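Annex B, item 7. Sequence and structure tokens for protein A, then protein B.
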Amino acid sequence: MGDPSRLRIILTCARQSISVNDIAEKLELTQSLVSHRLRLLRAARLARGERRGKQVFYCLADSHVRRVIADMVDHVMETEEEC
């Protein structure tokens, strides 16, 4: 998750199941970059793909990953007073 484009892809997949083309368009990245990043995220078991016809739609791997991402976002949004 240290790479900004991977993190943006993770956050996009957290919202909905989405195709490579739609991720690339939404994040203004190339399709090949998105595909490469998704391959790394699948290997790390953070994302999974589901084939629907000719397209593959990606989402977060499971509820554990969803919770980790949600906790990370909450942590980043905390103010110093909340510590």
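Protein B:
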Amino acid sequence: MVETTAVIQNEAGIHCRPSAILVKAGCAYEGKILVQAESGTCNLTSALELIMLGLEQGAAIRIQVSGPNEEEEARKLAELFETHFDFPPR
């Protein structure tokens, strides 16, 4: 298992659209991914669970990855969680 941290950078936090992108990445991974925040823990295969964490800009999270290529996957996920999403793109 590999563990990394990230800080939510998106101005609107993790709402429906960013959660869809994050869950898509989580579902594509062959192993297990857990996201932990002060508000709780969720598996990165459920957009609803991720939204229910209430991740606002500045929130710190811990990402745990278990499975193949753990370090690379953890790095990619941390980058995704720290993305400034812009919907629609400008």
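Comment on protein B: The radius of gyration is 12 Å.
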